[in-house]
Write a structure and sequence with these properties.
Layout lengths: L1 E6 L3 E8 L2 E9 L5 H12 L10 E5 L2 H8 L6 E5 L14 E3 L3 E2 L5 E3 L3 H10 L5 E6 L7 H13 L4 E4 H4 L5 H13 L1 H17 L6 E4 L5 E3 H4 L9 H14 L5 E6 L4 E7 L2 E2 L7 E2 L2 E2 L7 E4 L5 E6 L2 E8 L13 H7 L8 H11 L6 H28 L6 H6 L7 E5 L3 H12 L3 E2 L7 H8 L5 E7 L4 E4 L4 E4 L7 H18 L9 E13 L2 E13 L16
Parallel strand pairs: 1-4, 4-11, 5-6, 5-9, 9-10, 13-21, 21-22
Antiparallel strand pairs: 1-2, 2-3, 7-8, 11-12, 13-14, 14-15, 14-18, 16-17, 19-20, 23-24, 23-27, 24-25, 26-27
Pfam families: Hydant_A_N (PF05378), Hydantoinase_A (PF01968)
GO molecular function, one term: N-methylhydantoinase (ATP-hydrolyzing) activity
Organism: Sporomusa ovata
């Protein structure tokens, strides 16, 4: 059995899945002041009459890191950079960077030596900081200088956490690696404390199963591995909804998915049966990072979105002032409009009519006000979808085959999940003139996504046979090779071995059979009109996705 938990902005949901079927589900209001309290409550509810010994995995989608970043409740970070010549990074990074001497070029060759005294001076200046990040521009090609600076920082600053940029990402984008490393250290303490509390709560409830945390790209990490890379757990709520749709109703055609919760609607685009990924990685507080993430757009329209009439007209969202009046709240909301319009059958209809009457214009009935509310809400969602479609159409094309065979993204289906999906999704689909689907289990799709998510990790191997070595930055490896015999096939073989190594370190070795090749590059090194070697890059990952399709009845309404 699999236990999945999703901490949403409005509700915390949980499901128990066995052999692809939902055995139990539960829902409780999210306790924003103390997330753990709501998680414990929903676990206790969903495990009623469930054999806890039979649970073999617990997977959690949590907002702990996202909330800390949004609210600024993060630690100060000693940010030490080895930028070498080139871009001036002043003002482009979170926190205050400290630039050091020492430089490795694009082929991993040391061009300038480190100055230990500089590092010592920075450590003395920043004495007392408990978090640090060290990032070299070309450390993905040779991590030696980054590793040396990190060891000096550990010796002279003694922080509780040091993040090395190359260990988070093997990609070349230096600015994204800086920001990823910074935020990873900034949230490490709060995530570590949360993880310890979760482990204790799970053990106290008689569950011996390992705990996994959902990642922004839809994969999962064992909790111990996630404590080293907590930044990868940002935006897991939207990722959980994408995986829930994958498990419940994986679309084969080009599709739009909506996760319509109490506070917001998360929009994703699907092509060839998979959700599209954010180009380059996720952004945090407008700083680009190297964290792999689904391409998502969040708009402030949900079932509890506050409805009010002002001088400029009727306004819907993005504010939430508690539940809708039909659900016992004090202010009109979208759910009230859906109830009065007859699009949902839950909630107190008399209170919903009272809510719509309070926002109606002088010549409007409650029904008129309800439909006006829904038109405003639907227009807001459709505008966001239109922006995403325009951005998708404007994306650059890098491959000849994409130019020759590429097709414009034209959505053919809309899939809705979440509490207000049955009411709003058909209206959005009607405005877009495409079919729609709201699958059974939509009320707890995010928890289903968390429960069924595959474990995942990735590695990047870059070989330079001209100089006779390869690097795997995520593992801090620089390995000599035979200059004459090492080729692309050998690079892939080595990459597969190192992926298995990283999976074993992370406690997910059993998942290696679902690996996939993400990226391949090979070009010759020419000197004096002769080929003296090749530079090869291989990126390999454990494929994100779901362990199995899930069958669900109409669960999660309690």
């Amino acid at each position: 059995m699999l236990l999945g938990i999703d901490v949403g902005g409005t509700f915390t949901d949980a499901v128990v899945i066995q052999d692809g079927h939902v055995l139990a589900s539960a829902k409780t209001p999210t306790t924003h002041g103390e997330l753990l309290a709501g998680i414990i409550t929903v676990i206790d509810k969903v495990l009623t009459n469930i054999d806890r010994v039979a649970i073999r995995r617990v997977a959690l989608s949590t907002t702990i890191v996202t909330n800390a970043l949004i609210e600024g409740k993060i630690d100060q970070v000693a940010l030490l950079l080895l930028p070498g010549p080139g871009l001036n990074l002043a003002g482009l990074t979170p926190g205050q960077p400290h630039f050091l001497s020492g430089y490795t070029d694009h082929r991993g060759r040391e061009q300038a030596a480190l100055v230990k005294q500089e590092v010592i001076a920075v450590c003395h200046e920043l004495g007392g900081m408990q978090a640090a990040a060290v990032v070299g521009k070309f450390a993905v090609r040779n991590p030696a200088q980054e590793q040396q600076v990190a060891s000096w920082v550990q010796e002279y600053l003694k922080p509780a956490q040091i993040t090395s940029g190359a260990e988070l990402s093997g990609s070349l984008n230096y600015l994204r690696r800086i920001n990823s490393a910074y935020y990873n250290s900034a949230v490490w303490r709060i995530f570590t404390n949360f993880a310890a509390a979760i482990e204790t709560a799970i053990v106290e409830r008689g569950i011996a199963a390992p705990v996994y945390i959902l990642k922004a790209d839809g994969g999962t990490l064992p909790l111990p591995a996630a404590q080293n890379r907590p930044v990868e757990t940002i935006f897991t709520g939207p990722a959980a909804s994408v995986l829930g749709i994958m498990a419940l109703a994986n679309p084969a055609e080009a599709a739009i998915s909506l996760d319509i919760g109490g506070t917001s609607t998360d929009i994703a685009l699907w092509q060839n049966g998979v959700p599209l990924l954010a180009p380059g990685g996720a952004s945090v507080n407008n700083y680009p990072t190297a964290v792999r993430s689904f391409w998502l757009c969040s708009v402030g329209i949900g079932g509890d979105s506050y409805v009010r009439r002002e001088d400029t007209g009727l306004l819907v969202g993005p504010i939430r002032r508690g539940p809708a009046m039909a659900s016992g709240g004090a202010e009109p909301a979208v759910t009230d409009a859906l109830r009065v319009a007859g699009l949902i059958d839950y909630g107190d209809e008399a209170l919903a009519r009272q809510a719509m009457a309070s926002v109606a214009a002088s010549n409007q009935t409650p029904e008129d006000a309800a439909w006006e509310t829904l038109r405003v809400a639907v227009n807001t969602v459709c505008q966001a979808i239109g922006t995403m479609l325009s951005e998708q159409a404007a994306r650059p094309v890098y491959k000849v085959e994409d130019i020759v065979h590429g097709e414009a993204f034209t959505p053919e289906l809309l899939i809705g999940v979440g509490g207000a999906a049955k009411g709003l999704a058909p209206l959005v689909a009607e405005q877009l003139s495409i079919p729609w689907q709201v699958p059974p289990g939509h009320m707890v799709a995010n928890a289903i996504g968390a429960a069924s998510a595959r474990p995942t990790t990735e590695i990047t191997l870059r070989a330079d046979s001209a100089v006779g070595y390869y690097t795997v930055p995520e593992l801090g490896i620089k390995q000599p090779v035979d200059k004459r015999k090492f080729n692309l096939a050998a690079a892939w073989t080595a990459a597969e071995a190192h992926l298995a190594q990283r999976a074993a370190i992370g406690g997910i070795a059993d998942a290696v059979q679902v690996s996939e090749r993400v990226y391949e590059e090979e070009f010759n090194v020419i000197r004096s009109f002769n080929t003296i070697g090749k530079i090869m890059t291989c990126k390999l990952q454990l494929k994100p996705g779901v362990l199995m399709p899930v069958q669900a009845g109409e669960v999660g309404n309690e």
